[in-house]
Specification:
Largest sheet: 6 strands, parallel
CATH architecture of the largest domain: 3-Layer(aba) Sandwich
CATH topology of the largest domain: Rossmann fold
Shape: elongated
CATH class of the largest domain: Alpha Beta
Number of domains: 2
Number of helices: 17
Order of helices and strands: HEHEHEHEHEHHEHHEEHHHHEHHEEHH
CATH superfamily of the largest domain: Crotonobetainyl-coa:carnitine coa-transferase, domain 1
Strand content: 5-15%
Radius of gyration: 26 Å
Distance between the termini: 49 Å
Structural class: alpha/beta
Mean pLDDT: 94
């Protein structure tokens, strides 16, 4: 039986007691620190005085309290502290916070924090347990290390855009900044690994994650196809490079749906639904054969699917155990009963905020994520954070007058 103390510790989150100083901005870094915050870490977000994170101004749309939807995407459960780190007084504040932090997250250009004495080599001298997490476009090493990195540019450089979009059209980016978000996930994983390593060694380390590295690793089986064959992977639109039929089809009335036959058994079930014996045809009997004769098979499927409405195909295919699905718009996706049941849409009305947000997909049975506070207003926690460091009201007032905070 769990006692009340154990229950209280569980409700505090898996990373309760872990202190994070967040010097990152925009999307990739803040997406990492929000995950840490959702898991219970205490995250202080450092922003520029009067301006804050750029994404505060990426609007419309905004919520009724003037919080931009973009900023609200990745900044809940954090405290906002404004500090001008280019000043000696600002650097002193940051170093005071670092002295009590487990993790520092930053996405400045390589070497950008060294002139302020906030680089890893300098900080680890006084805080050897510090985990210093750096997220950059190209990483801390290599000929491009000092280049700035942007999701869109990296999608192009990495080859991701070359395999995205219609086969007979121009390359497309993915609809959201997936490279930023995947790099944020990689940084989160690296930080958690460093926390575990510190338990054994007592020492922190630098976590170095790059947008380009993350994008290249995301090429996954398509990248491996090239390494195995030396062939340049083509852009296949909604088709799959290794599996057929695995793509979008149009039903009667031009309503589209996805068909995803991942193995020969599922293809046989599809043939039963269509009342054809293609699964016994040497050209289509196995997946390698279907890949070879992709165009012939998919043209025949296109003709068949155009004869009935989408609802019909989804019903009969699902009943037969053939993987398929509708293509939702965002409103339809978020309104799905499954999405609601999994708490993938949350709101902060109970905390007096108009913000609604996408939920965290991590479900922990014993120490679940929590949505404690909405995205903070700029400088909302500056006074209280400095007071915790020992600054009195006169000292805080002077820092404000000098433009430091």
């Amino acid at each position: 039986m769990t006692d009340m103390t154990d229950m209280a510790d569980t409700l505090k989150g898996a990373l309760h007691g872990v202190k994070v100083l967040d010097l990152s901005r925009v999307l990739a870094g803040p997406s990492c620190t929000q995950i840490l915050a959702d898991l219970g870490a205490d995250v202080i977000k450092v922003e520029r005085p009067h301006i804050g994170d750029e994404t505060r101004h990426w609007a419309p749309p905004i919520f009724s309290d003037n919080t931009s939807a973009y900023y609200a995407t990745i900044n809940r459960n954090k405290k906002s502290l404004t500090v001008d780190i280019t000043t000696p007084a600002g650097q002193t504040i940051i170093k005071q916070l670092i002295a009590d932090s487990d993790i520092l997250v930053e996405n400045f250009k390589v070497g950008g924090l060294k002139k302020y004495g906030l680089d890893y080599d300098n900080l680890k001298q006084d805080n050897p347990r510090l985990i210093y997490a750096s997220l950059t476009g190209f990483g801390q090493t290599g000929p491009d290390a000092k280049r700035p990195g942007y999701d869109y540019i990296i999608q192009g450089l990495s080859g991701l855009m070359s395999i995205t979009g219609p086969s007979d059209g121009e390359p497309h980016k993915v609809g959201v900044a997936v490279v930023d978000l995947f790099a944020g996930l990689q940084l989160t994983i690296g930080i958690q690994a460093a926390l575990l390593a510190r338990q054994h060694t007592g020492l922190g380390q630098q976590v170095d994650v790059a947008l380009l590295d993350s994008a290249l690793s995301m090429l996954a089986n398509v990248g491996m196809n090239h390494l195995a064959s030396d062939k340049i992977p083509p852009r296949l639109g909604n088709q799959h490079p290794n599996i057929v039929p695995y793509q979008v089809f149009a039903a009667e009335g031009e309503a589209h749906f996805i068909l995803a036959c991942g193995n020969d058994s599922q293809f046989a079930k599809l043939c039963e639904v269509l009342a054809v014996d293609w699964h016994r045809d040497d050209r289509f009997m196995t997946n390698p054969a279907r890949v070879t004769h992709r165009e012939l098979l998919c043209d025949a499927l296109t003709e068949r699917f155009a004869q009935q409405p989408r609802a019909y195909w989804l019903a009969v295919l699902d009943q037969a155990g053939v993987p398929c699905g509708a293509i939702h718009n965002v409103a339809e996706a978020l309104a799905m009963p499954q999405a609601q049941a999994r708490e993938m849409v949350i709101d902060f009305a109970a905390q007096g905020s108009p913000v609604r947000a996408l939920g965290n997909p991590i479900k922990l049975s014993a120490s679940p994520v929590s949505y404690r506070t909405p995205p903070p207003h700029l400088s909302e926690h500056t006074d209280s954070t400095l007071a915790d460091l020992g600054y009195d009201s006169e000292m805080i007032a002077k820092l404000k007058a000098d433009g430091i905070i």
